[in-house]
Amino acid sequence: MREKLALALDVPLSPDKLKEISESVGVLKVSWPLTLALGIDRVRELARSANWVEVVADLKLADIYETMEKIVDKFDFADSFIAHSFIGVEGALGPLKEKLSKEGKGLYLVLSMSHRGWDDSLFPNLLNVVRRVDPKGVVVGATKPSMVRRARSELPGKVIISPGVGAQGARVGDAICNGADVEIVGRAIYSSDDPVSSARKVLDELRSRLLECQKGGNS
Ligand code: BMP
Hints:
Layout: E1 5-9, H1 15-21, E2 27-31, H2 32-38, H3 40-47, E3 54-61, H4 65-74, E4 80-84, H5 89-102, E5 106-112, H6 123-133, E6 137-140, H7 145-154, E7 159-163, E8 182-185, H8 187-190, H9 195-216
Parallel strand pairs: 1-2, 1-8, 2-3, 3-4, 4-5, 5-6, 6-7, 7-8
């Protein structure tokens, strides 16, 4: 079950704590704020601090291919990367997907963000880019279960990863009960007084929520 939860590590935690957290939360998402705080070499150490199911570099790549390639090469320890889909295919996501595939790495494209100001009228165009790029998966906010359902029905074979659980208001299980594969939790774990026990609690909550929603349908 730990493979269904990702820690959004936007601030540093000690390698020892991360190792314990990884027993409950199997995926590690690293980011720009973490990298700017620690430097790339210490982020690499944290990525190697535990037996993570996957290390996702959430860099929200949004540039021409040649620039994204330089950034991606620095994150040699990452298993997968998050990019924005609005940048389009030719000269950007097309060659990026090709490079990552050759290296055995995954690509996730942002399809619907978790914050209130995101405009989901963009969805059909972004979906079109996703279909053309054929990434490993997409990012859809857990705060909008209807968008998770829409993404799941349009993209049955894609991995859906969903941020917004905890601090942004979504409950543990809101996204997975509506078709997502992984829920991403940041502040509810790393800002708590005891991140290790908070991570365990999130896993326990997910277990019982999944039992509930498997019995009674969604929501
Ligand atoms: P938190 O659980 O503390 O709100 O963290 C959510 C994480 O997911 C952050 O790293 C944020 O950058 C990321 N994220 C998000 O919140 N909404 C999105 O739509 C896409 C994201 O990657």
